[in-house]
C-alpha cells in the first residue's frame, strides 16, 4: 500500500499503512477494529474482501472461516451470497458447518442440484422382466 | 496527419494496422482499420493519479477496459480539450501498471491464449502490496478482466493451503480469535491447520 493515506471506496473509508508502529483502523460492518500490524489482505475494504473470498474454491472456504475474524466475516457473506448457489468441484463428502452461530445445526455443503449417489436400484435380483399388459389381478406387483 | 515526424508516422502505420517488425511491415489488428476510417483511433485522455501525475492514454484503450471511464466519456462529463480524470485512489506506480495492462490487452487481444497468460503472469509478478494496490485500482475503475485475473491469483495462493500457511502468506499476525477459541478450533479441525 502507499504511505499513510485515506482512501474512500464506495462509502467505506480505509486508512492503510505499511508501518508496523501505526495503528490501522478499519471500518468493518459498523465496527472499528484497531490492528497494529497490517495484513494487506485484511486491510482491503470488506466488499472487495468478500469478492476475493467468492473466488476461492468450496473446500478452501471452510479453512478461511478459521484464518481470522476479519476473513470469517467476509467468508460468511460470501457463503450466503455465492457458495449456496454454486456447484463445488469436489463433492465426495459432506462437511459440517464449522460456524454455527445462527443455530442452523449441521449444514451439508453440497450443490443443491447435484446428483447424489444415493439412488437405490429398482432392479431386484436381476429380474428385468416387465409386464406389458398387467392382469386385473394386482397381486402381481 | 499534418506532421511527418517519426512518432506520427508510427501512429499512422499502427492505426492502419501495419507495424514495422524487424524491418518488415506486418499487418495485424484489422479492427484498427475500421477505427481509422471511423475517426481517430488515437484520441487521448488524461488520467491524474493521487500524486497529481498526469498520464496520457488512448481513449479507446481505457474505454474498452474500464466501465467507470467508459461511462464518463459516454455521458459527456469528460471534455477532451480541458479535462483530466482525477483518480485520487490510485497512485502513480499503480496507475502506470493499470494503463500497461489495458494497453497490452487492447493491442494484443488477438494473440494466442498462452502468450496472453504468460504476459499476465509476468505482469502480476509484483511485491505483495503491489498486488492489493492493483486490486483496489481495478475495483475502483471496474476493470473486469484485471479483477478476475487478480481474484484468480489470490485464489491460487490460498488453494489447498493449511490455515497456518495462509496466515504466513498473507502476513496475518493477529487472527482476532481468543486463545480459547483458537485452541477449540485447532482441536475440532486439526486437519485444517
From TrEMBL, chain A:
| Residues annotated as domain F-box | 38-86
Origin: domain of life:
Eukaryota
Q: What's the protein here called?
A: F-box domain-containing protein
Species assigned in the record = Arachis hypogaea
From TrEMBL, chain B:
Superkingdom to which the source organism belongs: Eukaryota
An example GO biological process term is: jasmonic acid mediated signaling pathway
- Coiled coil ranges (UniProt) are none
Write down the Pfam families for this protein, in alphabetical order: Skp1, Skp1_POZ
Query: Which SMART domains does UniProt cross-reference here?
Result: Skp1 (SM00512)
Q: Which keywords does this Swiss-Prot/TrEMBL entry list?
A: Ubl conjugation pathway
Q: Which InterPro entries match?
A: SKP1, SKP1-like, SKP1-like_dim_sf, SKP1/BTB/POZ_sf, Skp1_comp_dimer, Skp1_comp_POZ
Pathway field: Protein modification; protein ubiquitination
Of which family is this protein a member?
Answer: Belongs to the SKP1 family.
Q: What is this protein called?
A: SKP1-like protein 11
- Per the UniProt entry, what species is this protein from, by scientific name? Arachis duranensis (Wild peanut)
